[in-house]
Amino acid sequence: MHIIKEMNHNKFKKNIDFRSVNKLDLDLLIQLYESRDKRQNHQPRTYEEQKNFVDLWVNNKEQHIYQYWYVICYEGNSIGTITTKKEENEWGIWILEEFRDKGLGVQAGIEFFKTHKKNRYCAYVFEYNKRSMKMCEKLGFVLESKDGNKFKFVKNN
Predict the structure, then answer these.
(1) Domain at 27, CATH number
(2) Are 37 and 129 in contact, with CB atoms under 8 Å apart?
């Protein structure tokens, strides 16, 4: 008889590291952007537009919308990104599909919030994105409001 235990993500630390986005991450960023749920109705971004967005980050962070923009690394693989927009400290995370449902997003969030202390963060999640809602709750976010099919979660420290 085998006993299967559910993994507690706080108990078993995964090898998660962060590094600032750079120009060599363009293909990863395009892949992440294109893998977003089509129901989000985001505008398609061309390769050149993404390149300009990264160039602004690399060359002039003061003018960029992000305060933090990291590539999430797991066991030598670039698996996604974490961002925080300057306005509202809006937090976001994107994980490549092949690395989802492994607890890596939660662990990356835990590691991020250990070292990036703010009084308040928020995250906007579409109603159909149950996976992101569950992750926000695991990271200590609570639902603050709903506008149509978009939920606003907040995390106070």
Answers:
(1) 3.40.630.30
(2) yes
